[in-house]
Design goal:
434 Repressor (Amino-terminal Domain), mainly alpha, about 0% strand, about 100 residues, about 65% helix, elongated
Length: about 100
């Protein structure tokens, strides 16, 4: 049986959906967050990560915990790393075997 993995989802996808749902433009969000509009555009298109600073700004704006945004980024980063490195690391790193 073959495992079918879901492709990693960048936090920008969630941000775009939220903006569309609330009918908020990228430009307006950038203005309200106090960041360059290109930063929002790059995040939405998966070209930039959600940093801790941006997570704080998004959390405040959307009245959410900033950890929501940083956790989305962390999950994405781990999924990308697993896809790229899991086989190599499995070959190179031996697990610690506890001696009882």
């Amino acid at each position: 049986m073959t495992k079918h993995r879901i492709a990693p989802v960048h936090p920008g996808v969630y941000l775009k959906e939220l903006l569309d749902e609330l009918n908020i433009s990228q430009y307006r969000l950038a203005q309200d967050l106090g960041v360059p509009a290109m930063r929002i555009n790059h995040v939405i298109h998966g070209r930039r990560p959600v940093t801790a600073e941006l997570a704080l700004r998004l959390g405040r704006f959307f009245n959410q915990t900033p950890r929501y945004w940083i956790n989305l980024q962390s999950r994405y980063d781990m999924d990308v790393a697993e896809d790229a490195l899991f086989k190599q690391i499995s070959r190179e790193v031996r697990p610690l075997i506890a001696v009882m």
